[in-house]
């Protein structure tokens, strides 16, 4: 990537990551828990959201190791379940908020690209198109990855709403090993990477197809991935 593309990508990707975390805090705040607001986490400023491992070290390792599936994240927004008005239901809503924020951003970026492309302002080879495509892909990846139902990812918060009793207790105990399971799946279990990549590509093609830009996006992705 050249410097302009890197700079543009950072301007799109960083707000996408911080919006994900801020969405968790905003929904929790609306549902009775102001913890995130009290700790300064209801902000798009990336600094309070940076996690050394998931925001910096893990993505860098995956990029330099040539992994076909790159992912990362930010420091989880603090949520105090005891302050939520309906902890069981609200915890699921808070969990879903982050991925839904990324879906909304991916839809918005697709709409912007479609408008600019159909108006002839952007063409396939322009840096603006490439930046928007990167933004779309990153947000789709963030949404899909975080919906994996392994604690502590957001998908597990939604799944817990439908569990009870001993099953719920056993599921929650996975949280102590969850991060290790997730990293192991992505780094060492090839079928898991294939499934995640297939789901991501299918979601991107479906979304961009709705806006009539799937062909352009596929062209840019091939160019970025294979030169």
Structural topology:
Layout: H1 3-30, H2 35-38, H3 52-64, H4 87-118, H5 127-146, H6 154-160, H7 165-173, H8 175-188, H9 190-210, H10 214-226
Helix pairs in contact: 1-4, 1-5, 4-5, 4-6, 5-9, 5-10, 9-10
Question: What does the model show?
Answer:
This protein is an all-alpha fold. The chain has one domain. The chain has 10 helices and no strands. The longest helix has 32 residues. It starts with a helix and ends with a helix. The mean pLDDT is 89.
Number of helices: 10
3D shape: globular
Mean pLDDT: 89
Number of strands: 0
- Percentage of residues in strands: under 5%
How much is the radius of gyration in Å? Answer: 18 Å
* Low-confidence parts: none
**SSE succession:** HHHHHHHHHH
Features:
single chain; 227 residues; mainly alpha
Concise synopsis of the structure shown:
The chain is mainly alpha-helical. Helix content is 71%, strand content 0%.
């Amino acid at each position: 990537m050249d410097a302009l593309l890197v700079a543009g990508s950072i301007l799109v990707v960083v707000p996408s990551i911080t919006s994900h975390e801020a969405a968790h805090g905003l929904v929790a705040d609306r549902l009775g828990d102001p913890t995130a607001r009290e700790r300064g986490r209801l902000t798009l400023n990336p600094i309070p959201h940076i996690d050394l491992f998931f925001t910096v070290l893990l993505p860098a390792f995956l990029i330099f190791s040539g992994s076909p599936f790159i992912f990362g994240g930010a420091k989880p927004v603090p949520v105090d379940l005891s302050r939520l008005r309906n902890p069981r239901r609200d915890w699921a809503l808070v969990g879903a908020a982050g991925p839904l924020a990324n879906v909304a951003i991916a839809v918005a970026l697709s709409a912007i690209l479609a408008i600019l492309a159909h108006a002839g302002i952007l063409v396939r080879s322009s840096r603006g198109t490439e930046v928007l495509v990167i933004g779309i892909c990153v947000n789709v990846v963030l949404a899909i990855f975080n919906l994996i139902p392994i604690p502590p990812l957001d998908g597990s918060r939604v799944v817990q709403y439908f569990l009870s009793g001993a099953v719920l207790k056993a599921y929650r105990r996975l949280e102590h090993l969850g991060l290790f399971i997730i990293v192991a799946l992505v780094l060492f279990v090839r079928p898991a990477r294939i499934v995640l990549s297939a789901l991501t590509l299918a979601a991107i093609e479906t979304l961009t197809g709705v806006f009539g830009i799937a062909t352009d996006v596929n062209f840019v992705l091939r160019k970025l991935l294979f030169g």
